[in-house]
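Internal tracking record. Fields below are filled automatically when a chain is submitted to the structure queue. Please do not edit lines marked as system-generated. If the sequence contains nonstandard residues, flag them in the REMARKS field before resubmitting.
Queue: standard
Priority: normal
Entity type: single polypeptide chain
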Amino acid sequence: MNDDPLAKYLHQHITGVDEAAQVIKHLYLTTSEPTRRDSLLLLKKMAERDRRTLEDLLALVDQPSNTPAGAPAEPMAEVTSIKLGHGLEAGHLDLDGMLETLALEMLALVLHGKRLLWLALREVQPWIEAWVDFDFGELERSATMQRDRVDRWRMETALK
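SYSTEM-GENERATED OUTPUT FOLLOWS
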């Protein structure tokens, strides 16, 4: 991978998006509530859009966007391991009770991190002419909405 700090930062967020997609997939597969399943599908589509946006940002500053899908982001992999054990990596995560609450908590944290990403990129945007057309404010609002929705689910799940 490139030694450019900005490229490293964006690649870490790409892998974080991929890790979040795995959590979303497991939540989707383990919930039977139609409204929540629909919302999880929407979150997955937003995650895919964010991955493409990050790849586009890299390309615009002449950096390779070759982060392989599924490559672990070190901080995210650590949180996954600590919070959910090794079940997610092994593909057999039982999300009953507390584990579902923890998965939603982790997802809310990732979405908060995505919000912080967009805020940081908006701050450096004036120095990166190629990014002039990106609406980081809208991306930040979308991340906030996603985080708030997931946090409501987390609280609902915890109170069951």
